[in-house]
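User: Please fill in residues for this 275-position structure.
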């Protein structure tokens, strides 16, 4: 009798137990569905913001400011704190000649995401263009510490330019050297490094890096000497008494860039020697 009672009790308990398990399963399924749906919505929103920012950047590069603004406004409607959208809005304001609004947008972007290195680079360039070199240097310094940033060589190049403006040639040379190490074929950084080393009187190293630059220019049909690169080469050749090399570069400078400031500097240089 006792076993029959126990069996009956177990049967009566099994029904509500099964109901509870089914309810729990339904509840968990509902949570997962709700959570997945929320994540999907967030992913869709993030993707939409990214797409709007990309479109805005494309229109901005073409000078179509109205369409760029339209897409940035849509991005910021979806996420008012998106650092990329805010930083790109800074570029837009900067292009439109609104420096105060541009700076406000850059600062807001970095407050939203202090690790958004691209926005920090934009802000550093803005400060540099406004001759606020100390502030620009700080932004580029912070940006240069981001080892995962895809264009880190350019950050060091900009840091070098800023240090050069501040008269710190030794630091500038170090920055340009890092840019060359990170992107070995960077003609821009090689030229800047050659020039700064020549200015500092380190002619041997200047000649070494200038030779690398010359080889890159010779191998690449897309590259050609600029007035600056020719004048730097002339100065290095003159220092080492390589008159054939000097004459060759000076002839290029005269023929290709007769109205350049660098050619005027070259004529002043030889006039001083003759005087």
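Assistant: Residues filled in for all 275 positions:
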């Amino acid at each position: 009798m006792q076993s029959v009672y126990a069996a009956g009790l177990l049967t009566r308990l099994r029904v509500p137990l099964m109901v509870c398990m089914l309810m729990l399963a339904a509840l968990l399924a509902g949570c997962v569905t709700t959570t997945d749906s929320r994540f999907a919505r967030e992913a869709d929103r993030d993707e939409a913001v990214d797409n709007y920012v990309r479109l805005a950047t494309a229109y901005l590069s073409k000078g179509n400011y109205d369409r760029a603004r339209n897409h940035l406004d849509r991005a910021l409607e979806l996420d008012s704190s998106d650092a990329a959208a805010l930083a790109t809005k800074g570029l837009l304001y900067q292009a439109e000649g609104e420096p105060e609004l541009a700076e406000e947008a850059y600062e807001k972007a970095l407050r939203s995401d202090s690790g958004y290195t691209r926005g920090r680079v934009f802000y550093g360039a803005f400060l540099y263009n406004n001759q606020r070199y100390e502030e620009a240097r700080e932004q580029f310094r912070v940006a240069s510490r981001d080892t995962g940033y895809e264009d880190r060589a350019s950050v060091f190049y900009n840091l070098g330019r800023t240090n050069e403006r501040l008269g710190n040639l030794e630091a500038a040379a170090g920055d340009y050297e890092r840019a060359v190490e990170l992107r070995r074929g960077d003609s821009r950084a090689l030229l800047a490094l050659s020039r700064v080393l020549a200015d500092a009187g380190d002619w041997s190293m200047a000649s070494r890096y200038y030779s690398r630059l010359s080889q890159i220019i010779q191998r690449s049909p897309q590259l050609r000497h600029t007035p600056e690169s020719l004048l730097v080469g002339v100065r290095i050749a003159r220092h080492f008494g390589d008159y054939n090399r000097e004459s060759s570069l000076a002839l290029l400078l005269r023929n290709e860039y007769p109205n350049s400031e660098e050619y005027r500097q070259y004529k002043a240089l030889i006039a001083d020697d003759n005087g």
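For context: Residues 1-29, 31-36 have pLDDT under 50 and may be disordered.
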